[in-house]
Amino acid sequence: MRKVKVGQFRLPQFQRDFVWNEAQVALLIDSIARNYPIGSLLLLEPSPEIRLSTRPLEVAASEVDTYFSPETPLEDEVLADAQELLILDGQQRMTSIVRVLLNLNPSKTYWFDLHDIYDSFQEERSDWIKKTSGRTKDTTRNNGRWIRADLVIEGEEQKYVINYFLDFFGDEKEKAMQAIQKVSRIFETIRNYEVPYILLEGQEGVEAICRIFETINSTGTRLTTFDLAVARYFPNPDLRYLYETARTSHQVLSDFDVDGERILQIIVLLEKNTEPSRGEQLRLTKEDIHKDWHKAVEALVKAIKWAQNECGLEPRYYVGESQLVALAGVLSGLEPSEQKAFLARKGDLLVQWFFSNVLQSGFRATNYRIFTHYRSLQKLLEEGEIPADDIPTVKLDLDTLINLAKSDNRYKAILALLRRSIMEDFYSGAKIESSNLEIHHIFPRSFGAKKKVDSIANLVPLTRESNQLLSNRNPSEYIAELGKRTSTYKANKRLAGALFPVRLTPTGEINPQILSDDQYEIFLQERGKLILKKIKEVVGPHFSDDPLEE
């Protein structure tokens, strides 16, 4: 606590905000009072090799340095050893302790209920820790029953403990002394509690510190490269400000929740023509970032909008990040007119390349893939062709397609392909826009066929209005109804466009009759075949539906 009082602890900018709730705070303080272990802190001593911008703990920080009156002495060793220490792990615990035991919560005051400690501490409950709204310097509440929590640190609580229990027990002096001793022992435990810590001396290098943080961080929250870059370069450039400005200026970046690291990766491709690894991103110069940031942002926006328009990509099924970063890397090296011409001239091949990659099993974006794609697109730009090894064969058989899990990247990729292929609402005939797009279950969840109800073969893009009208309805009902809303010719044209494996006869009957619950498996098979046919149309010769290959 004395180190806190002289402002020795600070947080690197990449640390998240304080997020613990009051129950977590109380449980921590209760654990300290019982002398339970609460885990160690991971601290970093800054060095020339580790240059990170920092911020104070999220407490009433303006009072930390003046917490004691001028005559209150601090130990010489604390003052002499007051070098700044950065908290890499333990921010939530440290902030909680400071807010309670130094009375530095910005909006609350914590109290220890003397009677509850005496009466029920042994029951392993933490409700002896109380709080009130607002900050106060009052030392007690409730006729002395509550004492302000921070009094315990310097032993200032003793007279209040004695007065309360002597008054409470009256003539029963022996009981009063037992209560005073019991409560005092608990407060002594808090006062003498030692929090273990690991101190890194800053010689390890920024990437090693990053790895250590991710490994030990008790919240399990991954530290992104962009988080570290924000701290690395702040305040010039202020990457967080540049990133938020880009998201505000280009709605598509917010809609797709694009990470700022993608922009840094594009700058690495543009400046270094190498794999955009974490290390390469953090070795960019400030001049590189100032020079290329806006160019990279504009190129990424253009790449995502191209994928929306040509590949059916939407925020709810965002796939192909590595391809889009690579494409943006190539576009960022071209003038706007050259970008437009490149996308128009090579559009069909780019679509084939995009889907051939995102329809791979276990696909995920990596820095290696980004650079591989980037080099392939450079060859496309210079020589007119993409290397064959960067347009892999899509291996997808009917049974696999029907049973794809929603978490599978291929599930999302096929949703994008369906969105690309189905531009018209089959029920209303209206154009499907991103603003009114919804994914409709042909057989609803409420219908009998609940098994495989989320199969990709049971989904179709639709407008929000039609989805609401058709919700929970039997497909045989609304498809028959479709024949009454428009001509049989138009109805069948819409059904074919939406890849339905049924048609309406001139008399309004549905053929084949596979829209009942007992025919659901057959429906999935027939519609799955149509989806596979559409995939083959898009990826061309780079397709195999042989289950043995799959």
Topology readout:
Blueprint lengths: L1 H4 L3 E4 L9 H12 L7 E4 L9 E2 L20 H5 L4 E5 L1 H11 L6 E6 H7 L8 E5 L6 E2 L4 E3 L9 H12 L3 H20 L4 E4 L5 H11 L8 H9 L5 H11 L1 H5 L4 H13 L5 H5 L3 H26 L9 H11 L4 H10 L1 H12 L8 H17 L10 E2 L2 H5 L6 H13 L15 E5 L17 E5 H7 L4 H11 L2 H10 L5 E2 L5 E2 L8 H20 L3 E2 L6
Parallel strand pairs: 1-4, 2-9, 10-15
Antiparallel strand pairs: 1-3, 2-4, 5-6, 5-8, 7-8, 11-12, 13-14
Structure write-up:
49% of the residues lie in helices and 10% in strands. With 550 residues, it is an alpha+beta fold. The protein has a 5-stranded mixed sheet with strand order 3-1-4-2-9, with helices on one face. A 4-stranded antiparallel sheet has the order 6-5-8-7. It has a two-stranded parallel sheet with strand order 10-15. The two termini are 61 Å apart.
Q: Calculate Rg over CA atoms.
A: 32 Å
**Total beta-strand segments:** 15
What's the end-to-end separation, in Å? 61 Å
Strand content: 5-15%
Report on the biggest sheet.
5 strands, mixed
User: What structural class do you assign from the helix and strand content?
Assistant: alpha+beta
Overall average residue pLDDT = 89
Question: How would you sum up the global shape?
Answer: globular
Give the low-confidence spans. 64-80
Strand order within the widest sheet? Answer: 3-1-4-2-9
Helicity, as a percent range: 40-55%
Give the number of helices: 24
